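Issue: ligand-bound run for zinc ion - logging full I/O for the record.

Environment: standard queue, default settings, no custom constraints.

Inputs:
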Amino acid sequence: MKYEPVIGLEIHAELLTNSKMFCSCSADYASAPEPNVNICPTCTGLPGAMPVANKKALELSALVGLALNCSINKHNTFARKNYYYPDLPKGYQISQYELPIAEKGWLQATSPLAPLLKGERDSNSLLPTGEGLGMGVVRVRRVHIEEDTAKLNHEKNYALVDFNRAGVPLLEIVSEPDMRTVEAALDYATKIRAILRYLGVNSGDMEKGVLRFEANISVRPVGSNELRKRTEIKNLNSFRALTRASQYEIERQIKIYESGGEVIQETLGWDDARGVTISQRSKEDAQDYRYFPEPDLPPLKLDDAWIDAIKIRLPELPEAKTARFITDFELTPSEARLLTSELSLANYFEEVIRHAKSSPKSVSAWIAGEFMRNLNELKVEADSISAKSLAQLIDMVTDKTISGSSGKVVLAEMFKSGGEPAQIVKDKNLLQLTDADAIQAVVTKILDEHPKEVGEYLAGKETLFQWFMGQAARATKGKADPVMTKELMLKGLEERRK
Ligand SMILES: [Zn+2]
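Outputs:
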């Protein structure tokens, strides 16, 4: 029997606010000089302390909800999720349960099975329903606000608690179980991260734990619609962990069914070093948490004017930008996706286009190729070279002032010294040789000096042609116009056939 996975994701994202969710302590625990300095009676759960909701966090949450095509609940409430753990001093977490701030949204998917269709891109205002889901759309069940827990530092025989993180605003984005491959889950997670970064609500820095995934996984025979018992893998802190843990869990469940067993509903941890999922506890149901309305916080009443004011703040999101780049700049979908993967890169690309006389296509080829290679190698940001300077460089290659290979040398030098392209070309004497007579002289000299290779080439060893081109590149230090050189070289060789 063939099985298919049914995957849903819960994504926890800390919000980039100055203060915590329910008190005025700094939320920037990463910069705290030492443990337990950004604390007060509220975020350490002292009796009698009263929470007050963070206005900025509500705005950012609504912004995310709108970006994910959700409807915003004008009346939404906070609830207590009761459970005991040493990193939760109150004995409950303030969360949202029955009425989250946003729900019933969707995200366009791009996976090998569901390519981006032209007509689908402009459908932002349409909420797809029922039929045909999984065909390029992942439904977002809800987006709700909660607070992060403290941090436990485990020592050998004891653990230390740091409350600097306790009460930091946390957004939970819950998808429907609409993903049928690990690739689709990875695609969805990648897109959510990009959207959060575009919105400026989360840095996406997973090494710091500001974005965490939980995967709900079950498997079923291909073609069936049943939803079997699922397991939940907690605290996946990288795309790699998400991928490996999901793959492992899918295979584990298939093996259980194939040997006649039953999958148990439970919460699992992921042991990255050993590459296995580990049982942590049998899965709680919602009733185990004894949710009840938070008595210390009034329900949130949001009105249309407030929601409209947030809506105006929505920037052009990655999917829309990708579509526009494809249409306006005639890029391929993969080129456009690469350039829109980071907002800073997309903005930089458009700025170079504004300065350049060259076509957007050649600008894209330079940025996606040589430019990105340098960025990754040197680990620097795109704007370490001004858009104007890069545009000048690309134009010099386009109008044949310098050759493509000289262009790469100039770019590397620009990254190194920060110099202007025209000056570097002058200093390094890289002006392209486009004088036909000069190139002809070089070609004639090479052919005259290598009668043996000419003879072999004419006898049929055509691979030698590249060798002749290499000789010409060496003689001119890569400055000869390659198209012209190729033409003259072929002509010179044929003339010697007589
Ligand atoms: Zn506090």
